[in-house]
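Minutes, structural biology subgroup

Action item carried over from last meeting: produce the structure token record for Aminoglycoside phosphotransferase family protein (Streptomyces montanisoli). EB confirmed the sequence was re-checked against the source entry. Recorded below for completeness.
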Amino acid sequence: MDEVEVVVAHSERATLRVGDVFLKVDADRARVDVEVRAMALAPVPTPKVLWREPPVLAIAAVPGTALGRLGEPSTSSPAAWAAAGAAIRKLHDAPLPPWRGRRRRDPAELAAELDGECEALVRNGVLPAGLVTRNRRVAEAALRPWTEVFTHGDLQSDHVFVAHDRVTGIIDWSEAGRGDALFDLATLTLGHEEHLGDVAAGYGTGVDLDVIRAWWSLRSLLGVRWLVEHGFDPFAPGCEVDVLKSRM
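Output recorded by EB:
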């Protein structure tokens, strides 16, 4: 292998690929601890841990291709999306992990954070007031009590790998813990609304589509400024700002 690919890099962490090995560099040891423990407990395909030398974690590449990517049309079949839904149901039905999710907040705390972020988005001219106000109303449906399950916590479509309409691996478990099942499903389908029905069919019962759509708005509102500040572009076609506009 004569080159190193930078998969993602920002002030919190970086991931490099060298051949079939991924090197995850993270100064937050607790976050890496969670990733290793979650992969060991999750009843779904996960990457093999090759070695760990803090702050570096080396894991093997998983076979297959990413289910989708935010901002791009997915080339995966409806059956592959349904298989992803079934795999996530298996995770959510597993025994709870013995730690709290890093993203875990009660509805009141989450509402306060959301209101502060909405105010900042408008005050700083990041997004129009009407767009923020509309999506804040949509997001309200996600601010309700939920039964905790074993969640991935950052289940983006490019963290799920598939081949021949089956899930071959789910990566990036650093946000795993106890959380809201519908948050995982919303994260998976963010920007891929056309596959929400496929995922719901594979997942089975307990899917409230209005709450999933609310999580799309909530996650996007909370993420826009962070993404800009860390070198990502939420204004790119099909990404977070377009998700917010679709709720109008």
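Discussion: The longest helix spans residues 209-229.
Next step: EB to file the record with the rest of the batch.
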